[in-house]
Amino acid sequence: MKRSNWSPAISELKFAGHLIVRNKLVLVGTVIAVAVLMTATFSTLLVSPAVIVTIDLPNRLQPPSITHWLGTDDYGRDLFAMIILSTRLDVIAMLEIVGAGVTIGVTLGAFSGFLGGKLDEALMRVTDIFFSIPGLILALAVAAALGPGLNNLILAIIVVQWPGYTRILRGQVLAEKQRLYVDALRALGIGKVRVILRHIIPNTIYPVIVQCTLDLGGVILTFASLSFLGFGGSPLTPDLGRLITAGQLYIFQAPWLTAFPGLAILIISLAFNLMGDGIRDVLDPRLRR
Amino acid sequence: MAEESLIQVNHVKLDFHTYAGEVKALDDVTFEVRKGEALGLVGESGCGKSVTALSIDGLLPENASVTNGEIIFAGKNLLTIKKEEMRKIRASQIAMVFQDPTTFLNPVLTIGEQIEEVFLLNPEHLAAVASRDDESENKTISNLSKQQQKRIAKRLSIDVLKQVRLGDQDRILKQYPHELSGGMRQRCMIAMALARNPDLLIADEITTALDVTIQAQILELLRDLKRDFRGSTLLITHDLGIVAELCDRVAVMYAGNIVELADVGDLFANPLHPYTKGLMKAIPMLDRRMNRLETIQGAVPDLINPPSGCRFHPRCSFALEKCKSVKPELLHVSNSHTVACHLYDEGKP
Amino acid sequence: MMQNILEIKNLKKWFPITAGLVGRTKGYVKAVDGVDLDIKKGETFGLVGESGSGKTTLGRCILRLIEPTSGEMIYRDQDITKLKGETFRKIRRKFGIVFQDPYASLDPRQTVKSALIEPMIYHKLTQNHEEAIKKAKDLIKRVGLNEDHLYRFPHEFSGGQRQRIAVARALTTDPEIIILDEPTSFLDVSVQAQILNLLSDLQEELDLTYLFISHNLSVIEHMSGRVGVMYLGKIMEAAPKDIVYRSPEHPYTHALISALPIPNPALSQQRVVLTGDIPSPANIPSGCRFRTRCPYVKDLCAEKEPLLETRQPGHLVSCHFDLKLPPPIPILETS
C-alpha cells in the first residue's frame, strides 16, 4: 500500500466516502439530505419570503394545480413556497439543537470521564435522571416551563439531547485515558486540560459524530411534533410543524395542507436517518479501538 | 541416529491475500526434519517460521494460498490432502504446542477432560494398552466399553502429567485452565501433545511468554524429555540460547527463506550467512564483552514488495552485484552445512 | 561525579482489592513493598525482575504516574514524593521515560513534529515556535532519523523507528534521568541492537542517567553499571553487574542468572531450577518472601523478614545467611 502522507483522518474519510457510494439506499438518503440542506440555505433565493405575508383570499384552499404545485392554504399562500420557507427553519433548528447538544455533551463527558471522582459520579446521576424520562415528554415539560418562543423550544430539545452525547463520550474517554500515550504525555508534564482538548477529544469523537448524524432525523421529528402542538415559533416564522397545525382545521376540505408538510417531514427525517446509518456502518469498525 | 527423513518441506511458496496487497510470506522454504532429531527454526518476527509451522500442521488461515511446493509426510503431501486426513494426522502423528496456553486450552473444560479427550480420540491406542494390561484376553476396540476406555484414558492422563513433572495429578485433572499458572498451563499443553505419542512435535515459541525462572523449568523439562521422546521436534524460536541448548540442527530463516542450515555446533562455531553472522553479533551475550553491539543496518523488509534477488541484499555489507537480481539457492558447503548465499557459490570461502 | 541523583527510601505502592457491593477492602496487591534504591548521576542502573516483581510499578511511581502509598523519593536533595503544582512541573521535566510498547506510546493523530514540539511549547522552553521546530529537527537527527520524518504519522513507522521517536520525545525537556521501561522487549534482536547503541551514545553525549528496567538479563548485563534484582516488590540484591552476574549472594539472583540459556552449544549448562511458581503479590509469603522457592530455606526464613544490608561497599543483599554460592554460569569465572 502506498505510504500515505495524509492524516489518518483523511484516509479514513476517503474510505468512508467509498463505502457510502457503494450502498444505494444510503446514497439516495445522503443525496436527499444534501438537497434539503441546500434548499434550506438558499430558500430565500428560491422563493420570496414575502409569500408569508401575501394574502390572496380568492385563491384560498385551492388543490394542487399548474400554478400552485401543492395547492394553497387558507390565506391563499402557495403551499410549495411555504414548505420551502419552513424547511429553512426546521433545518436551522435541527442543526442548532444537535450542535449545542454535542458541544455540551462532549465537553462535560470528556472532563468528567478524564478527571473522574465525585464530579463524575454526580454528573452520571444527573444524566440518569434525564434518561429516566422519555425524550418527547421531557422536551414538552421543559418547553412548557420555559414558555412560548422558538428559542425556548430549541433550548428544551437541547436539554433532552445532551445527556446521550455525554454518556457516549465519557465511555470512550474512560477507555482512552488508559492508553499508553496518555501516560507519556503526563510524564512529559503536559497538563490535564491540554491532554483532554488536544488529544483525548480528537481521538474519541468519532462515535459521537456518528450518533449525531443518526440523531438529526429524530430531532427534526421532535421539533416538528412540539411545534405542531403549539410550542415554538410564531405565524411569521413558519415551520413544517406549524403548517400542519394550521392545516388540520381543513383536513377534510383540503387534505393537501396536512399531507404535504407531513410528507416533507417524513422525507427529511428519513433522508438524514439513512445518511446517518451509512456513516455509522462505515465508521463502526473503526469505533472499536 | 539414522538420518532418515520424517518430513520434507520442499520449495514451499506461500502468499497471504490482504487488503494492503499480497504478502509473500514464504518464498522458497526447503528443509527436512529427520527421525529422532530436534531441529531448531530460528528467525526474527516476520521471517515466516510460524507460518511454516502452520503449513505443516494444516492450520493456515483462509487468506493463505500455497503457490508452489510440497510437504511430504508418511508418503503424503500435507498441502494437498483432505481435511479429514489432516485431522487424523493431527490426532496422533503431528502435535503442535503454541506460545500462548490461554488461547489453546478450552476455558470451560477441566484439564482432565481435555487431556483425556486426546486419548479417547485414539481408541486403538487405548485397546493396545488394555491388551498389555490383561494379556489373557485380546482386547479390541469393540470389546472395550466406554467406561473402560475412560478409565484407561484417565490413567494415561496421570502418566503424561507425571512426564511433564506436574505433581498432585489428581487435583490438576479436576482444575480449570485459569486456576493454573502460566508455567503449569504450558506443561499441560506439552502433556496434551505428548498424549498423542506423535512422530513430530512442533513447539512454537513455547517459552517466550514465560518468566525467566519458569522458562528455566520448561527448558529443563524439554531437556529431560529429549532423552525419552522417540519422535522428532521442530523447535521454533527467536532465542539462540534455547537453540544452542536443545537442538541438534538449526535452520535460520529470513524474510520467507531458509538462509542457512547446519548442525548446531557448526552454526555457532562457523556461521556463514551474513545474516546469521549479524544476528549473533547483535545479541548481547554474557560471555563476551563489548561496548557497542554490532548492528544489522536497516530493517526487516516489507513482504508485499520484497527486495529482488536475495531478500537480504539491501542490508548485507557483503552484497555482490549478482545478489540484487539472482536469488541464491541452498548449497552444501559441507556434509552438514548448507547456506543460501552467493558468497559461497561453487564453494568459494 | 558519583553523587546520588535519586534516592528512594522504603517506597511502597499497595493497590487495594475491593470486594462486595460496598467495596470493602479485602486485601492489598503489594506491588512495591518497601524499596530502597540510590541512583548515581551518570550511571545506568539496571532493574531486573520477573512478573510480580514490581519493577514497572516502581518506574511509574518515580514519575508520579502512580502515587506511592508511602515512602520517600528524593531528587537532588528535594523531596518529590508529594510535590505539586509549578515546582513539580519543573522537576518533572528533569525526568524522561521511554515505554515498552512503541505502537501505543505515541498519539496516532499527531505528527512527529507536533509530538516533539508540544512539550517545548507547553513548558515555554523555547523563545518561539521556530526555535522549537529547530530543536525538533536537531533531536530527530540525533536519534538517527531524517528531517522529513517529522511530517509523518506514527503508523508510518516501524517499531524500531517509533522507539527512536519516543527517545527523541523524552529528550525534548532536557531531562537528567531517563526511565527506560523495557524499551526493547517488543523489538527484534537486530533492531534492539540499534536502539541499545543509540541509548549508549546519547548517554555519553548528554551525560544522562538511566534507570533501565527489563526482564532480559543479557540486555541488562550489557547496558548496566549496577544492577538491582527485584522479587515481589522488594530488592533482593543490588551490586555492580560483575558481582551480580558472577558472584551473587542471594539465591534468587543466583537462580535467575543461571536460568539464562547461553547461545553456545559447546557449554553444557547446570542451571539452578527453582521449584514452584511465583507467588501473587496479593499473597506475599511471611518472613522472607522468597522462602517458598529457595533451595536454602531454613526455619528462620518463615519467621523473620531479612533486611537489605550492605555486605561489602556497594553490595547489598537481603538474606539471613551468608551463602557461599558457586558461580551461576560456570564459564564466567570471577576475574
The first-to-last residue Cα distance of chain B is: 30 Å
Q: Structural class, judged by helices and strands of chain A?
A: mainly alpha
Fraction of residues in H or I helices of chain A = over 70%
Beta fraction of chain B: 15-25%
Quickly give the structural class of chain B. Answer: alpha/beta
Gyration radius of chain B (Cα, Å) is 22 Å
Count of DSSP helices of chain B? 12
Q: What Rg of chain A, in angstroms, do the CA atoms define?
A: 22 Å
The strand count of chain B comes to 12
**Segments of chain A where pLDDT lies below 50 for 5+ residues?**
none
The run of helices and strands of chain A is: HHHHHHHHHHH
Major sheet strand order of chain B: 6-7-8-3-9-10-12-11
Task: Explain this structure.
The complex is a heterotrimer of chains A (289), B (349) and C (335). Chain A has 289 residues and is an all-alpha fold. Helices cover 74% and strands 0% of the residues of chain A. Chain A has eleven helices and no strands. Chain A is elongated, with a radius of gyration of 22 Å. The two termini of chain A are 22 Å apart. The longest helix of chain B is centred in the middle third of the chain and has 18 residues, at 146-163. By secondary structure, chain C is of the alpha/beta class. In chain C, 29% of the residues lie in helices and 24% in strands. Chains in contact: A-C, B-C.
